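Amino Acid Chain and Its Fold in Token Form
===========================================
Purpose: to set a sequence beside its fold so the mapping can be learned.
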Amino acid sequence: MSAASCLLNEDQFLCSICLDVFTDPVTIPCGHNFCKNCITEHWDSNVLCQCPNCKEVFSTRPELKVNTFISEMAAQFRASAQQAASSSSAELQAAESAEEPGEVPCDVCTGTKLNALKSCLVCLESYCETHLEPHRTRSGLKRHELIDPVENLEGRMCMEHDKLMELFCQTDQMCVCMLCTISDHKTHAVVPLKEEYKVKKAKLGETEAEIQQMIQKRQLKIQEMRRSVELSNEGADREIADGVQVFTALKESVERSQAELINTVREKQRETEKQAEGFIKDLEQEISDLEKRSIEVEQLSHSEDHLHLLLNFQSINAALPTKDWTEISVRPPSYEGTVVKAVNQLEEKLSEQMKKLLELKRIQQYAVDVTLDPDTAHPGLILSDDGKQVHCGDVSKKLPDNPERFDLCANVLSKQTISSGRFYYEVQVKGKTAWDLGVVRESINRKGQITVSPRDGYWIIILRNDNEYTAADPAVRLSLKSPPQKVGVFVDYEEGLVSFYDIDAAALIYSFTGCSFTEKLYPLFGPYLNDGGKNSAPLIISPVNL
């Protein structure tokens, strides 16, 4: 059997004073056994000569003689325990090896010291598992207060009175002993350590909650600043796009102005990003510091060591040097006027282009969110789940032939209608060789062969064979310098106007004027036939960049 089990089964070989195997055991008149030195020192330090176990008082100090029988048994037991310990497995030897850095050694072990399992605040000693056993089994020792092993138990003693600091002075915010309460702290508010421990631990919980709230606020502030940077970038991109639209029409004489415009906008953009990055760096540093403090607070709040918590409470609860970010923000710079300033330098050459751009910007203010209506779609059309894209497939689906659905022409209408005011939307036509776009009356014929003209309720433009553009008015051929990649459609219901724009060129493609609208109008989308994959690209309803 192991040394630990031997001690447990042969408890009579332990001295109740030193808690170790008897050395020169003696038997006193009441029948209890002790180490000769232990009982001698005990009687030397006390007025009464009594037994430490049963408290029997002896009128005269007994003469002590070594009990040879117990001495021999103790010697045999010690040898047996040492032999059992030496034959333990390598794994057990590693687990119970000499103390490692940062661990607390047992104060009772002789020779190789095992790591302590608990420290006793009454005995002011630390015990390994073996030597802790009496504190678990003996009634007198069970009442002692045990904590996780700590070093320097003497540091828990009052330096003035050499007594255990088991009280807390709320007046001076310090740990004191019992004698301190009748001297320097006589009139102060004093409570047990455990009571103040609960108060401080609750305070640490509040501190932890405050720190977490501060972290969340700073994380939200980072999101806000990053969003500001995104808005700055979007604004810069839009402004640059406007500038490019203006200056593309010019040759070498305007390239310098174009570069200056881009540099001006980018500089503002970089300044905004630089400012935001500086703030974000500070916020991330504060979050890092707060997270470190949070870990320290959490570790301290989980400590069962009353004194350790109270001694470290003030320093860890001190406020961190953080900024008040409430009023600090990153505002996207205003790019308004950047293009205008550059255009003014070339006013004569750019006046016509600027008029086109401003006109497009004006009508884009009337942009609406348009989605496709699947109940009107020809069975061969394939619509995206979000209702923003449509292209023609190779096989027609079996769908209900409701009155709203086109059954022969590959068209689809929108869910939105126009019955008054102004209406604008944009459609990407990039990659297509054929398409139909425009608006139609609610009462148009949707079955069989269809004639398209304003008289029939169609105000549309048509692309065929990749480069043949026609306005159904009834058949006006359009001459375009370059094929549009995105087409804008504008309707002024009261004015009787339907206009089509090349968005990239900011140029008017065609306008139906003098129209008489008496019914609801629907945007129409015709992706036309797939043509063996040549015209497979979809028509895409695009968001309008204002």
In short: Residues 401 and 514 are 35 Å apart (CA to CA). The two ends are 87 Å apart (CA to CA). The longest helix spans residues 193-247. The chain has a mean pLDDT of 85.
